[in-house]
Amino acid sequence: MENSDEVPYVAEQGKGVIVYKIGDRQYILDEAAARSAFMQKRVINGRNSSEFNVLPLKYSWAYELYRKMDANHWIPHEIPMFDDVAQWSSSDFLNSVERNIVKFGLGYFSASEGLIGDCGYSVIRENLCAPELKMVVGRHVHEENIHTDSLLYMISSLGINPHEVNAMFLSLDSIKDKNSLIMAGMPYLKKDIDLTQTKNKKLFAKAIFSLTQVMEGAQFWALFLPILHLCRLGKMPGIGQMFRYTLRDETNHIELGRCLLLDLFREEPDILDDAFVAECSSFLVKAMDTEFAFVDDLLPQSLPGLSSDELKKFVCYNANVRLIGLGWNPIVQFDGDVVLENPLDWASEVIYLKKNESFFETRVTEYSKSSKLHSVDEESDLFEGISC
Question: Given 3-state DSSP classes, what are the helix, strand and coil percentages for the chain, each rounded to the nearest 5?
């Protein structure tokens, strides 16, 4: 057998082609076509091939975020629920307001996660062109399935009637109004929409904004905080841990949507004008109105360390974080004032942020595959570290 080291190998490049020679065989590669395919990588209105070739990477932030999300993978059934079951079964451990928080949390979140997953796939992913963008949004959708699985695990562990949980999602006006607002326009985007038209581009961009910056980025936090408050008090620790893991996923989803929007605005400059910014900002304000009604149902009476007004103010603060993250002016108000400071000191620690630091500057924790709650001292970037 001939030694491969003795086989002549020559690579030549020029005039838009790459030529490989191995022995008597010659391979001619169309470098110009490959470069053209790369240049046609776009968020929308680009080369949309079934080859799904992510190389060469154009949106490196998407792959970096995909790897970060993949490293954060967690399995709900690995988290013990023994203490939660004992506390839920006791007539003395949880009061009626605390039980209402748990039921509302499971009732709203169990169905809304499915809504995010379906729209994330059929509205966002299916309208994207670049494979690495499809890849990271696919991971986003997978994480929504994990969240749904965690909710099934919580509900079955506590022995809650699943029909009661579903009835909350279908019957309560505060929940229906939230989801109806988010879903406006989504069915239209699931079809073969012409994204060369400016009006459709704006509708698509608003859908990304609605799902990732409004629903996941602002609305979910009115639900997360009371659940994590209970965990802070030593109540429902298994559920609290799963919601903390879910919150970490949601933080990545928010960043995914933010980076998608920034690249979309750069590539399709006809989207981003004063009217579009005003429309999205106004939409966020309207979403906060529906959120206030939800908070009134979720927390009909104050708990030590958490009142409905404090929760509403926190939600407004978090909504302004989303606007600032896009480079827009914060406009969300509570009692006539734009909220730019976290109204709840303890929330900074429970949501993995350093106490007395600004949300806009603070670093947040990474997961580890562990059944223990994370230390507040572990940190990673919220808006830094992913270049987009």
Answer: 60, 5, 35
Residues ≥6 apart with Cβ < 8 Å to 210: 182, 283
Question: How large is the angle between the packed helices 274-298 and 220-232, nearest 10 degrees?
Answer: 40
Nearest to 37 by CA among 46, 45, 28, 27: 46
Q: Burial letters for 138-147: b for 16+ Cβ neighbours within 10 Å, e otherwise?
A: ebbbebbebb
Q: One-letter amino acid identity for 154? A: M
CB 17 within 8 A of CB 33: no
CA-based nearest residue to 290, from 175, 170, 168, 171: 175
pTM, two decimal places = 0.85
The residue among 158, 37, 45 whose CA lies nearest residue 106 is 158
Instruction: Tell me, rounded to whole angstroms, the distance of Cα 137 from its chain centroid.
Output: 10
pLDDT digits (tens, 9 = 90+) for 321-331: 999 999 999 99
What are 21's strand-pairing partners? 10, 26
Directed axis angle between helix 220-232 and helix 237-267, to 10°? 150
What is the distance between the alpha carbons of residues 312 and 291, in angstroms, rounded to a whole number? 8
Q: Which residue has the tokens 């979309």?
A: 264
Instruction: Find out whether 63 and 56 touch, Cβ atoms under 8 Å.
Output: no
Contact between 326 and 212 (Cβ < 8 Å): no
What confidence tens digit (pLDDT) does each residue in 113-172 have?
888 888 889 999 999 999 999 999 999 999 999 999 999 999 999 998 888 877 777 778
In whole angstroms, how far apart are CA 384 and each of 159, 332, 380? 42, 24, 8
- Sheet containing strand 25-30, edge to edge, reads 9-14, 17-22, 25-30
